[in-house]
Design the sequence.
């Protein structure tokens, strides 16, 4: 507030007031500020008792109290105060307010809320515009003494009684000190009993002093905040093994690191002059490096003694000026590097060998390298804070690691669920292109699953939180093979060619609180050992920043996901105040209700006047009880007055420090039209719906049952009240339930509707089969609004079909018996063939199954085809029945004439089966048998018989049986030859591929020839 007073101050008073205004500039600390302030208060004859100030100590708010113990001695001369009585007492604010009931009754509660505290015996002009809280002297003194244990031990009840009785302790006036609108402390005055009336001028003076004190304390609070924000920076500079101190233009120290404090043996160097420690004098040095840096606006570096350390130590002194935004030099950063060892080495260079000099140079170089590396880490950490994305941050990290000696880098980050590890960066680009070739994929798309890749080093360092070093070629190969299991030998050798003289070091990226991922670097062994601490420091700091950015990105994604959900829904979503004012509406709201997005109307604008009162009552009841109302139906009007039925769901949500209402409105216009449509059914339609033989069910577009006729109850056993408002899919027994959901179509005729056989559940648990015909109902605007299902029970019909299937199976069995009988007729002519037919069946089945996987035959060779060819192959030599015994059983080679007669068995066999086939109606199972009997001696090159067919002109069934028949003939003993070994038979068939046999069939044979051998040895 502004001070309104006509008080005229003397020059002396004005000078003292100016001293108060300038105290913060001449007082390095708040303690000195309060001490100097007490002196000025004495000169102004202001009976100051206490100054308090809010301060943040180690992240916790404290109230610093600076009592004037001398004034307490005036009140109670016999009080004994020890020399160790603290000049400043710190009160933890959290502990003070822990007991809320006690705290709210204390003067501190009113004071911290900005009230001016006045004792009830003090007379002050009532026209003064202040928030005033009045307390008794006893309570004020009691609350002050109980604020802290030390105060309560000094201000005992006995001492308090003596203080109150003292003539010097009359009235208390305590002003809150403000920083803007925030209370930052108090200015407490105690008037003697002889001075209990405060006039307007005196009050105005005290107000002016209050504002001056508040202004001074604000400066110390700002400094306190600056110190807190610089904590992380101090941790970094404190790790530097050089003394660093920053001074302003008048040589006052404003910042140091711990090394400086340690070297100069001072715990609190701030606000002191640098020359007091560096030069051990009371004035700046004549040839001050900082002074020259300010004058020249450029860094100054020199090597010199520091008087504090005498002549025995030497330092490299670097003074670097810092420019303010205005361009003026505002401060100087001074770095002291102890170079005593180097200087001594230089002075002894004539006495010692060249090797010692080189060692000194080496140490000097290492110190410089460390300084450069620390500067690199500092710059990198600054860049990480400025980076916009995680990828940008990781790029800064890999570039810095490259400067620390890393030739290649591969960075991985854990997923949010910690189940996968994704490669997110490969440095440099040429190495990324190499890994893309090795992985045969974009390397940045690769995700390593924890369960599958648990033993790879990338996961090992994450689990143990310790780095590992891979040095040997075997270890590097293991890393490659486990990370890229599909890698071939050429790509593996290509990768190894890049890693020549380097080792691979893998570090975890994380702090002591959380691991973010891991990073693998290819680096020479010496550089890794030399820079290991710097690398770990960099990665630990980077992990904190990566975690922060990941949290930011997750928050953005979460917000975007919620917005997409709200904007992409088909429902209206609104956020309203308790008065119905719309503060947010999704795009569907503006579209469906035809309202401009630039306006924020009231929700009540969209309802009829007759329902507005009801809606307000529902919202008021919800807000008063804190409960969400049940969903209800209501008509909403758009801007043109057209109404639509909606179902409204309301819920309470936080809204800008108050409670708002979220409204979700779902369009139920179709549902209402369907209800009206059903209600308007004629009596004739109702009789159709109640037919007991035909079940009729209607559902909404989501499949929820809305009506159920008498026929549905008769067929399924459920009454309407038991089944309405439940999903229709619950009545479907098998996975065929998808068939019952119809697609949208035009209802031209009920006959043209699709139908399906659906297995359904009755109420008693029995299963029945129905024939279901679905339909889609449309309103007058041709908009679908419901599904209609007609169904009948066809369970008995299905049972008859099962019986028919059993008869067909019996007929098939009779066919098999016929085939085997015919085949045995030929086999009995030649007893030496033994189990020949049984083996042929197994061989043919193996080949047919294998060929069914071939692209050319997978659609041709069905399970039915395999069954028929296995059964019919038995008839391949049925024609030999007509060959005379002296030819069929001849032990030697047949003559040309005899061979011609033998070849006729193919034609005779085919004609015999054809004659039988003509006597069978419908599809004949003998068709494949006829093909096999006729053509199984044809050859791929066209040199076979009886017709000399070539290639694919030969039926597939005959090509399959040809390989099976020849194999069995080769490995079996016959009248005219001995049995060949299995291996020789395989070679003969393999050599004849493309000449005698179909090459594809031979490939199938070679793939399973070991199974042929097992069958041959089993069925002798």
Sequence:
């Amino acid at each position: 507030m502004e001070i309104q007073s006509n008080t005229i101050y003397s020059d002396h008073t004005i000078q003292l007031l100016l001293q108060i205004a300038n105290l913060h500039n001449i007082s390095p600390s708040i303690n000195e500020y309060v001490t100097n302030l007490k002196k000025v208060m004495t000169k102004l004859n202001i009976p100051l008792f206490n100054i308090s100030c809010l301060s943040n100590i180690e992240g916790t708010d404290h109230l610093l109290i600076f009592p004037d113990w001398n004034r307490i001695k005036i009140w109670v001369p016999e009080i004994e105060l020890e020399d160790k009585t603290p000049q400043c007492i710190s009160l933890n604010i959290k502990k003070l307010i822990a007991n809320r009931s006690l705290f709210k009754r204390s003067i501190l509660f009113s004071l911290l809320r900005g009230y001016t505290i006045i004792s009830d015996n003090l007379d002050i002009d009532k026209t003064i515009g202040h928030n005033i809280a009045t307390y008794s002297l006893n309570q004020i003194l009691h609350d002050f003494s109980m604020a802290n244990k030390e105060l309560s031990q000094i201000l005992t009840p006995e001492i308090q009684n003596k203080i109150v009785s003292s003539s010097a302790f009359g009235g208390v006036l305590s002003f809150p000190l403000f920083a803007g609108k925030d209370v930052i402390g108090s200015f407490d005055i105690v008037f003697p009993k002889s001075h209990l009336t405060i006039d307007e001028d005196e009050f105005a003076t005290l107000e002016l002093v209050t504002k001056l004190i508040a202004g001074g304390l604000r400066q110390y609070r700002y400094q306190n905040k600056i110190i807190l924000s610089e904590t992380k920076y101090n941790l970094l500079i404190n790790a530097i093994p050089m003394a660093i101190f920053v001074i302003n233009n008048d040589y006052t120290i404003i910042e140091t690191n711990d090394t400086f404090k340690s070297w100069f043996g001072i715990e609190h160097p701030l606000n002191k002059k640098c020359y007091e420690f560096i030069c051990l004098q009371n004035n700046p040095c004549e040839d001050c490096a900082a002074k020259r840096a300010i004058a020249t606006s450029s860094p100054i570096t020199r090597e010199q003694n520091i008087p504090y350390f005498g002549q025995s130590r030497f330092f490299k002194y670097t003074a670097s000026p810092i420019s303010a935004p205005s361009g003026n030099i505002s401060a100087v950063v001074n770095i002291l590097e102890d170079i005593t060892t180097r200087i001594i080495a230089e002075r002894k260079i004539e006495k010692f060998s060249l090797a010692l000099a080189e060692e000194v140079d080496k140490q000097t170089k290492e110190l410089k390298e460390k300084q450069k590396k620390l500067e690199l880490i500092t710059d990198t950490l600054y860049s990480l804070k400025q980076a916009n994305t995680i990828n940008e941050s990781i790029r800064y990290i890999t570039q810095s690691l490259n400067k620390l000696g890393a030739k290649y880098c591969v960075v991985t980050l854990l997923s949010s669920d910690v189940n996968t590890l994704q490669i997110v960066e490969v440095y440099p680009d040429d190495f990324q292109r190499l890994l893309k070739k090795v992985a045969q994929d974009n390397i940045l798309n690769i995700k390593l699953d924890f369960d599958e890749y648990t033993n790879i080093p990338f996961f090992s360092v994450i689990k143990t939180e310790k780095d590992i070093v891979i040095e040997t070629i075997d270890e590097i190969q293991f890393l490659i093979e486990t990370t890229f299991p599909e890698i071939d030998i050429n790509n593996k050798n290509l990768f190894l060619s890049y890693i020549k003289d380097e080792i691979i070091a893998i570090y975890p990226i994380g702090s002591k609180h959380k691991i973010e991922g891991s990073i693998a670097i290819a680096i020479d062994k010496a550089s890794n050992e030399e820079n290991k601490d710097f690398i770990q420091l960099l990665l630990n700091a980077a992990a904190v920043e990566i975690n922060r950015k990941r949290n930011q990105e997750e928050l953005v994604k979460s917000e975007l996901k919620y917005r997409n959900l709200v904007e992409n829904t088909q429902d209206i979503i609104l956020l309203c105040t308790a008065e119905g004012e719309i503060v947010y509406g999704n795009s569907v709201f503006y579209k469906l209700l035809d309202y401009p997005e630039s306006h924020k109307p009231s929700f009540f604008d969209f309802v009829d006047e007759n329902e507005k009162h009801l809606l307000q009552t529902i919202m008021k009841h919800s807000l008063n009880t804190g409960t969400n109302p049940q969903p209800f139906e209501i008509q909403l009007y758009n801007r043109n007055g057209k109404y639509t039925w909606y179902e409204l769901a309301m819920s309470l949500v936080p809204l800008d420090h108050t409670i708002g209402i979220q409204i979700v409105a779902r369009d139920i216009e179709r549902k209402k039209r369907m209800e009206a449509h059903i209600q308007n059914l004629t009596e004739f339609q109702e009789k159709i719906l109640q037919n007991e033989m035909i079940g009729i069910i209607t559902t909404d577009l989501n499949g929820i049952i809305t009506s159920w006729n008498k026929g549905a109850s008769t067929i399924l056993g459920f009454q309407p009240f038991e089944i309405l408002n439940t999903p229709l899919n619950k009545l479907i027994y098998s996975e065929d339930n998808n068939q019952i959901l119809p697609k949208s179509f035009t209802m031209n005729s009920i006959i043209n509707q699709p139908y399906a056989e659906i297995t359904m559940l009755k109420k008693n648990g029995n299963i029945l089969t129905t024939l279901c015909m679905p339909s889609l109902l449309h309103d007058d605007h041709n908009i679908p609004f419901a599904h209609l299902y007609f169904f009948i029970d066809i369970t008995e019909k299905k049972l008859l079909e099962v019986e028919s299937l059993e008869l067909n199976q019996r007929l098939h069995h009779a066919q098999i018996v016929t085939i085997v009988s015919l085949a045995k007729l030929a086999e009995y002519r030649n007893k030496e063939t033994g189990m020949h037919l049984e083996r042929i069946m197994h061989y043919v089945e193996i080949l047919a199954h294998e060929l069914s996987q071939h692209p050319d035959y997978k659609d041709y060779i069905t399970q039915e085809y395999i069954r028929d060819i296995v059964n019919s192959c038995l008839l391949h030599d049925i024609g030999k029945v007509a060959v005379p015994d002296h030819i069929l059983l001849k032990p030697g080679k047949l003559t040309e004439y005899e061979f011609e007669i033998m070849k006729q068995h193919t034609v005779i066999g085919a004609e015999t089966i054809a004659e039988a086939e003509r006597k069978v109606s419908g599809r004949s199972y003998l068709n494949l048998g006829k093909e096999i009997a006729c053509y199984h001696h044809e050859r791929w090159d066209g040199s076979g018989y009886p017709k000399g067919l070539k290639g694919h002109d030969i039926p597939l069934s005959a090509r399959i049986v040809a390989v099976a028949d020849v194999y069995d003939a080769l490995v079996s003993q016959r009248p005219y030859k001995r049995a060949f070994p299995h291996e020789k038979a395989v070679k003969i068939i393999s050599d004849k591929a493309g000449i005698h046999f179909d090459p594809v069939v031979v490939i199938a044979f070679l793939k399973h020839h070991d199974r042929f051998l097992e069958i041959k040895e089993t069925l002798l």
Summary: Residues 535 and 922 are 84 Å apart (CA to CA). The chain has six domains: 11-227, 237-338, 403-551, 569-662, 671-793, 803-1018.
